[in-house]
């Protein structure tokens, strides 16, 4: 989060454009309208997209952008950035023009759709957030509500992950909480997730000049969609902490302390293939949801009493393709066949069945998911590949050398040697995901059951 002397930056933009054309750039936010729905229908909201800060040029505010704050080896200029706060004072994040969004960052909006291209001249992968206005994120309060979007997964091979997820960031990107953060949501700052990362480029009003900060940045995360053409999952990652939370020590759940942290890093998720239903989701005629064509993904947050004040006890998944409503597949393991959604019952029974850890329950189960969805969450988007585990936790055998006949180890049909990001960059640079027609509203309001 953080940083940047945006006020200074704005001053420079106002004064500087005529003096320094091309060096300091006004931030453009690609329009990405969504729809808010209820039983009377849907109304359009003029929301926008903003790219996150990790791929942005960081430059010295003292000389109108002539000097970068980073060194060529990826470190930081020792004079401008002796520490994170000083760096935040001395350096500004560059804005991105409409043309750069498209050409450099492979991020394009058309009508109500958002596309990410995997490899462009300037970068690999993409990420960003949904803005309500130019300097505030769109906040979603999801108890007793549903969230829907159309997606085209046909151009995402094994190993890729096109994701749309809720995170409990701060609405202004952290400007009020951390006064040294002068750029805020307008520059995509304020990121946090349930992995309690120590290596975010910006956090808590400072630039992460150390690379690995002592504090980790935690918050509630609900992955609505992590998927490619061969596997899909949705996962809740609750945290016993509230909101944007800086962890220290054990709380961060680093390494061997994974199950001692404030957030559930594994999460409780639902992936049809991993639940032993091998012909539900995929890219040929064998599958119920055929990822060669676009489809709609609906996630419903059902409360115990059917009201907005109840507790969310179930996160339900429904697909719609070619006008046909498709209920989520059921678990295909003995004793668990009644489950086809995320709930306390599913998470606890599945953990018991596989003998896995149940950090989901330890951090507070569905109740903490419900509380965070009630307080309000932001939407994040990303397209990425996985240097650590080649995305096999999503679409193949994981760990790759585990016994694939053991429940919980086979997550999709992709092979153990698939998903190396270098291979994906070399052989699938044109991989693309397109999200469109984002809608949210009361249960049943975003799609037709005909
Ligand atoms: C679809 O793909 C799966 C996984 O590769 C394969 O097992 C299956 O035979 C294919 N079905 C058809 C009809 O091609």
From TrEMBL:
GO molecular function: cellulase activity
Protein family according to the UniProt entry: Belongs to the glycosyl hydrolase 7 (cellulase C) family.
InterPro entries named among the record's database cross-references: ConA-like_dom_sf, Glyco_hydro_7, Glyco_hydro_7_sf
Reaction catalysis annotation: Endohydrolysis of (1->4)-beta-D-glucosidic linkages in cellulose, lichenin and cereal beta-D-glucans
BP-aspect Gene Ontology terms: cellulose catabolic process
Keyword field contains Glycoprotein: yes
Gene name, Swiss-Prot/TrEMBL: LOC108682447
Pfam families for this protein: Glyco_hydro_7 (PF00840)
Source organism of the structure: Hyalella azteca (Amphipod)
Superkingdom of source: Eukaryota
Signal peptide (residue range): 1-18
Name of the protein described by the UniProt record: cellulase
